[in-house]
Design brief:
By secondary structure, the protein is of the alpha/beta class. 43% of the residues lie in helices and 24% in strands. Strands 3, 4, 5, 6, 7, 8, 9, 10 and 11 form a nine-stranded mixed β-sheet that branches. Helix 9 links the parallel strand 7 and strand 8. Helix 1 crosses helix 4 and helix 2 packs across helix 3.
Amino acid sequence: MQMRMTLRQLELFLALSKKPHIGEVGKEVGLTQSAVSMAIKSLEEILETRLFDRINKKIVLNENGRHFLTRVEHLVLGLKEAESIFRDEHLHGEIRVGVSSSIANYIIPKVFYSFMQSHDGVSFKMETGNTHEVASLIESGRVDMGFIEGEYDGLDIENEVLGKDELYIVTGDASLVRKEPYRMEELLGRRWVLREKGSGTRETFMSHLGDLGKSLNIYMELDHTGAVKSILSNKDTVSCLSRYSVQKELKYGLLFRLPVEGYSFTRSFYTIWHKNKFMSSLLSTFIEFTRDWDGLSE
């Protein structure tokens, strides 16, 4: 059954139950006395019963009105509370986020945690994939927004720079370490272990290589940065990975950076969302938070 009562009618009913003067209630809510009277009359017609008695120029709840009050007061207050939540008095809810694999493991969880520290009612649901997979999640509406580690030029995607990154050429084979920088040509024939096609990390690396990429010995392709790192302890294996993803391994001597003369593999991380996505207060507040987050400066 379709409900014919309106929230406005119920609000006026509650107001009159506490202050039985139509004129005064009208002034408080910005309505004329006749408009308030018509709203109450319409409510009584919907319910097919009188809710008020008119006594000495006042309106007083009758037995039907008192019973109706017990049924609707908590409902109206609950609706007002829900309205206040969505009007920014409090930020509550779940944000669904698609995240490229590398930054999903090493950066974005820190962003979530920092935001949740000051917004207790917020949670995040994260789906991971490569840059193209995350963009696909955005385009299909499966997530509210995304963070990617490469450029994406979809017509329906809005983007802005989240922060800067640099890719390092790394290996776990200590015999490849030397003082002087390599020329890129010296490394092309090594056993390169790369992320899969569609990965922002791989696309950035190949873009910087240009024509040299045609001579690269791609020995293995793996879907996750962790899987790539697990192979690099083998002889003659090398890769190109985000500096954020190899910080710990470099610190403890599990991987080694191989400087390359004339190359700086820089890129940007991006925040993305669908151009037709409704920007709720929660989502807008979170995106604004990411603009000011300084975790990428570490």
